[in-house]
Amino acid sequence: MEIVAEGPDDAIEQLISITKQGPPGAVVEDVEVEYEEPRNEFSDFEILY
């Protein structure tokens, strides 16, 4: 899975924490985080399969 997100630092840290935990019944083996300068390119949200 890949997540690309922009937002306040506290919200991003919360998102990272949630991904490390995973949903009930899931086993999360590793979470890699790469920080980049915000590009302010997002105006909406969608889930792609």
Overview features:
49 residues, mainly alpha, 1 helix, 0% strand
What overall form do the CA principal axes indicate?
A: globular
- Rounded to the nearest angstrom, the distance between the terminal CA atoms is 10 Å
The proportion of strand residues reads under 5%
Number of DSSP strands? 0
Structure class: mainly alpha
Residue-averaged pLDDT: 90
Low-confidence stretches: none
Structure report:
The protein is mainly alpha-helical. 27% of the residues lie in helices and 0% in strands. The longest helix has 13 residues, at 9-21. The protein is globular. The mean pLDDT is 90.
Compact summary:
This protein is an all-alpha fold. The protein has one helix and no strands.
Topology summary:
Layout: H1 9-21
